[in-house]
C-alpha cells in the first residue's frame, strides 16, 4: 500500500497542472449533446427535481460516440437529467477529450477536477490497486453471462474496495467485450505466430503480461493515438474487442483479425468520491440507479455488436480466422501463477466461483 500512496503523491505534484492544461486544450467545443439534452429535460419539468444543489458532472471515456459505452453514457445523462429535473447535468467527453484511460484514472485519483465520472477497463485500475486485475486474467470466462455475473459478484466488489480510499467509487459495470488480436503481418493461428509482434496495449499490467506470455512485445499507447500509430506502421498489432475494432475503424489500418478472446474486458463506471459527496442523498440514488440501468443497456449493445460485426469486418476487407484457443490458454497460465501473491485468496474465490456456476 505504501507503494501505491507514494505513486499517487508523486503524480499529484506533476499531474494537477497537466490535467488543467488538458482541460484547457479540450475547451467546451468538444462536449457532446448530452448537456443540451439535460437542459431540455430540465425545462420540460417531466419529473420532480431531486433535492440538493445544482451539480455538473463531466463524464469522460476514450472511445468515440459509436461505441456501446458512449450510447450507455448518453442514456445515463438523459435519465439523470430527467429524474433530477435538471439539477444534475452530465456532460459527455468521448474520444479521449479529457485524456486517455490512464490519464482519466489519474485525474480522479488526484482529484484534479478535470473529470468526475469515467468508464474504463476494470484492470486499468491495477496500477493503483493490483487486485483490480482479477477480472482480466486470461481465459477465465467463455460467455458474456459468466463474465457479467463475475463483474457483479462479491469477489469483484472486494477487489474494488481499495479504490474508495483513492477517491474512486464504482457504481456499475459496463461491458467492453472479449479482446481479440489484429495485426498487419498475417493470421495468428498459434502463440508462435505472435513471437516478436510489436503490439499496442493499454497501460495495463494484466494485458501486458498476457501478451508477453504469448511471445509478443507489448508497448502501451493511449487509445486516442492508436489509429495513427497503426496507420504509420509504428506498431504491428493491437488487441481490443470486436465492437471497438469496428466502431473506431481499425479495419482500415489492420488487415488480419484473429478471434482469440484472450481476456474479458469488463469496465468500471466510476465516479470521483469527491464528486459523489457533492450530491444529495436523493441525487446519489438517482445517479446510482441510472448508472446500473445504463450498464444493462451497454451490455446488451456490446453482445449484439460482437455477434453482428465480425461479418461486417470481413465485408470491410479484414481476413478473419478463429484459432484453437487451448494452446493460447496454456501459454498464459503463468500470468495467474506468477501473480498469485498479488491476488491472494481472490484467486481461490474465483476458482470456487467458476466451479459453482
Keywords:
globular, ten-stranded mixed β-sheet, single chain, 357 residues, 15 helices, D-Maltodextrin-Binding Protein, domain 2, disordered N terminus
Explained architecture:
The protein is an alpha/beta fold and 357 residues long. The chain has a single domain (2-356), classed as D-Maltodextrin-Binding Protein, domain 2. Helix content is 46%, strand content 17%. The protein is built from 15 helices and 10 strands. It has helices at 2-26, 34-44, 68-83, 101-110, 144-151, 154-160, 205-213, 226-231, 242-247, 273-276, 281-315, 326-331, 333-337, 340-343, 345-356; strands at 55-60, 88-93, 117-121, 168-183, 198-201, 217-220, 237-241, 256-258, 264-272, 319-321. Strands 1, 2, 3, 4, 5, 6, 7, 8, 9 and 10 form a 10-stranded mixed sheet that branches. β1, α3 (68-83) and β2 (88-93) form a beta-alpha-beta unit. The radius of gyration is 20 Å and the shape is globular. The two termini are 33 Å apart. Mean pLDDT is 89; it is low at 1-48. Belongs to the bacterial solute-binding protein 7 family. One of its GO terms (cellular component) is outer membrane-bounded periplasmic space. Residues 1-34 form the signal peptide. One of its GO terms (biological process) is transmembrane transport. It comes from Faecalibacterium langellae.
